[in-house]
TrEMBL record:
Subcellular location: Golgi apparatus membrane; Mitochondrion
Domain of life: Eukaryota
Protein name: Golgi resident protein GCP60
Biased composition, class Acidic residues, residue ranges: 444-457
InterPro entries: Acyl-CoA-binding_prot_CS, Acyl-CoA-binding_protein, Acyl-CoA-binding_sf, FERM/acyl-CoA-bd_prot_sf, GOLD_dom, GOLD_dom_sf, Golgi-PI4KB_interaction
Keyword Secreted found: no
Residues of the ACB domain: 77-168
UniProt source species: Culter alburnus (Topmouth culter)
Biological process (GO), any one: steroid biosynthetic process
GO molecular function, one term: fatty-acyl-CoA binding
Gene3D superfamilies cross-referenced by the UniProt entry: 1.20.80.10, GOLD domain
Amino acid sequence: MATEVQSGDLNSANSSRLEVSIDGLTLSPDSEGEQEQAETPAARPAEQSADNPLSVDGEEGEPANSATIEKKWGFDLVELYGLALRFFKEKDGKAFHPTYEDKLRLVALHKQVLQGPYNPDASPEVGFFDVLGNDRRREWASLGNMEKDEAMLEFVKLLNKCCNLFAPFVASHKIEKEEQERKRREEEERRRREEEERERLRQEEERRRREEEERLRREEEERRQVEEERLRVEQQKQQIMAALNAQTAVQFQQYAAQQYPDSPEQQLILIRQLQEQHYQQYMQQLYQVQLAQQQAALQKQQEDAIVLSTLEASEVSAPSSGEEAPTLNGQAESTADSLEREPDLEPADEVTENGPTDSPPVIAAPSMWTRPQIKDFKEKIRQDVDSVITVGRGEVVTVRVPTHEEGSYLFWEFATDYYDIGFGVFFEWTDSTNASVSVHVSESSDEDEDEEGEGQSEEDKAKKETGKPQVDEIVPVYRRDCHEEVYAGSHQYPGRGIYLLKFDNSYSLWRSKTVYYRVYYTR
């Protein structure tokens, strides 16, 4: 038990004031003048307690008990005492100033609650001149064997009597308690709803889990089928590529050796790129052939259906044997006779001048690819002046490359500065003895034909067309982004003739194009 005594300056006017702090409670005996001043405000709480709706006493003299206290104050006795003790410690000397006797009483009641009745043997001796200590012991001893609950109740009653702010203090805590109780109920309700929601979500999750398992099972089955299909396609691709690579191995090897003569690794990389591009082109052409076959089959079915419907209509409209057939311009003719007497077509000439005989020749598909080393390519081509040509605006330049007796494949490479250009490859079936490469410039791809066709009759034009060599398209003319990459390609000789490499700038009315190209053959 800690006791602290504080006194003012002996020479000061307030030297008569003495303060004692016992267990956190401060006792200060007021002077006679201060006591007289305190009597008047102290009487006001007592007068107001009769009208205080939160009075500790029961209604109409009913003795206070736990039920009455909780009904009036909203707290049980233990909670109410705790609030009263807290209010006394925090507000003493600030919000209210109890008298010395009231403080002694409050401290004694607090000791009675904490330690029970006063026991002289258990308490240390107090000095003869310790006035405050003797007063405190005497007040504690005066409580006798007061019960703990009664001491707490007396503490609350005395504090409520001393300070009229205690009741609002308790009321505010009551509101706070009710708010906490409301929040607690809301929290319980929220938890209950959350529990119900969790149960619903658990069931929903279980349902989704079963659906997910079923979906995964189906996806796994689909993946297995897709993987089997992929393996089948990959195996088929390997077989096709093996067959294609067997045909182009020598040509691609020669081309790669010419491009990278000192780097076998670069040669292998280039060969693999060429083989992959060749395969893609082959599959694209195969798809186009299959599509054309399907369209032809569909068209044939439609034509057969039309012919069948025509025959059925003819049979229905044909006259019977006993009836006279209708006449047209005085001539009678049956439908069967008209169908049988179709005009015989004269066989066309099978051999054309300077062209292939018998069945049309089989032309292999070209191989085309690109490579990014455009700067090195153009620097190398610039060393040969004849390999750099200028295609004027609106012009078409045709490079005529005859087949070589010792060659079997033609290779070409080209690039431009800054802008794209149209490019295509054609093959002219002609037995030319001239083996040199020539360049022909025209305003457009159809210029020569238009100029030659002017002023001629249809018969002369037909004879002219008959006398011209046959030309087959190898690579259609399309605009190529050859200002960004080097465009290259190869084609197997279909026979003797002249390759026509067309650089088409007819679509450009304002810009000329510089073309860097190179052509060569391999065995």
